[in-house]
UniProtKB/TrEMBL annotation:
Protein name: Exopolygalacturonase
Broad class of the protein's primary localization: secreted
Cell location: Secreted, Cell wall
Stored InterPro entries: Glyco_hydro_28, PbH1, Pectin_lyas_fold, Pectin_lyase_fold/virulence
Length: 417
């Protein structure tokens, strides 16, 4: 197998001076220098991995970086070699555009220290089909994915839906299912047909430095959706979508979200919840240091207005900045799209121990704080602290219904608790 490190030395103009430790000295030719610090970091990791791990380059398995030849079989062959290695191994996707029809990277693997370095772009086929998942990690434990772009090319499906034709549901660009200890660092997701990323039934997933982009009118293009998963960290990322930047569904627990830029989009949402009568709860959620710009919502909890045994508890939203956000703080327990299957009913989701602390900025509507809870299951132990929200040159307002809690510190708008 051709050495992937030699390939990078040729294509990026890198000269490596061998020394005893992993702190390999790397010098870049003028051609490579404009690529920036993130590439330097990846190249450093590549050099260390090259010395310590077996490495499998998708090009060596037949992938062509021309954006036209389906590389799915080559990607899966490289993955199989990486997964079957008894010692930690590396899969490499070099620079270029790789057409991938669909790929399921499936475990369990024989080692739990795998790495995947993506220097190029994976592109979905043009048009659309009936598949619901494009790139999937399933039953995988101990994988770190660095950099790379996934272009879902969802424009054709969005146009179909906009024209109200008979269209398939669409495919999530990246699905992490039933997996454990996964790191995604510096990944870029573009134009997924529906969800950009879905984390389902997994534990120990970290997403850092992600950039997620889709037009603000693209339907159901949530940035990251989490469901039935725990020990999830999302930090240092930028998201511009046509739906929620981050959504947390049933069974989300021990989730840490920090240093996020969101907008356009629908904000960060817990929910919607309560669509099913029997549903796992959501608990121990921390969302902090988020900037919302021009979003439909800021910090939101949303439940269907019908019976369910689910719950939300132990949630802290803090240090959030709003810039022209329509609904900066909102709890809506009367979600009932088109008044179908829920008119006149009451949400069974029990909401308690929710904190909104240090939320400031500007609201695009006069009601900047809306806590509209269930009449049969009122919200309890809700805390508002240091809320500083303005509405143009008028006094912002708050609205409360069926909620018990406390307010402290600076309160603008005045508290309705």
């Amino acid at each position: 197998m051709r050495s992937f490190w030699n390939h990078y030395k040729c294509t990026l103009g890198i000269s490596v001076l061998p020394i005893r430790s992993c702190t390999t000295q790397i010098s870049l030719s003028p051609m490579a220098q404009p690529l920036g610090g993130s590439v330097l970091a990846v190249l450093f990791l590549l050099s260390c991995s090259a010395m310590a791990m077996a490495a499998y380059n998708v090009v060596d398995f037949g992938a062509k970086p021309d954006g036209q030849t389906d590389a799915a079989k080559a990607f899966l062959a490289a993955w199989e070699a990486t997964c079957r290695a008894r010692k930690p191994a590396t899969m490499v996707v070099p620079a270029g555009r790789f057409l991938v029809s669909q790929a399921l990277f499936k475990g369990p693997c024989k080692n739990a220290g795998m790495k995947m370095f993506i220097m190029g772009t994976l592109v979905a086929p043009s048009g659309y089909s009936d598949i619901t998942q494009w790139i999937t990690l399933k039953y995988v434990e101990g994988l770190s994915v660095y950099n790379g772009t996934l272009d879902g090319r969802g424009q054709a499906l969005w146009a179909c839906k906009k024209a109200r034709r008979s269209c398939p549901y669409g495919a999530t660009s990246l699905t992490i299912g039933q997996s454990k200890n996964i790191l995604l660092s510096g990944i870029r997701l573009l134009n997924s047909e529906v969800f950009q990323m879905s984390i389902f039934s997994s534990t120990g997933v970290t997403v850092r430095g992600a950039t997620i982009t889709a037009p603000d009118d693209s339907p159901n293009t949530d940035g990251i959706h989490v469901q039935m998963s725990s020990a999830i960290t999302i930090r240092g990322s930028t998201m511009r979508t046509g739906d929620d930047c981050i959504s947390l569904g049933p069974g989300s627990a021990h989730v840490w979200i920090e240093n996020i830029k969101c907008g356009p989009g629908h904000g960060i949402s817990i929910g919607s919840l309560g669509n099913a009568a029997q549903e796992a709860g959501v608990q121990n959620i921390s969302v902090r240091s988020v900037v919302f710009a021009g979003t439909q919502n800021g910090l939101r909890i949303k439940t269907w207005g019908r019976p369910s045994n689910g719950y939300v508890k132990g949630v802290t939203f803090e240090h959030a900045v709003m810039s022209n956000v329509q609904n900066p703080i909102v709890v809506d327990q009367n979600y009932c799209p088109s008044n179908i299957n829920c008119p006149g009913q009451s949400s069974g989701i029990k909401i308690s121990q929710v904190n909104f602390h240090d939320v400031r900025g500007s609201s695009a509507t006069q009601v900047a704080v809306k806590l509209d809870c269930s009449p049969s299951n009122p919200c309890s132990e809700v805390s508002l602290k240091d809320i500083k929200l303005t509405y143009r040159n008028k006094q912002a307002q708050s609205y409360c219904r069926n909620v018990k809690g406390t307010a402290s510190g600076v309160m603008n708008p005045p508290s309705c608790l």
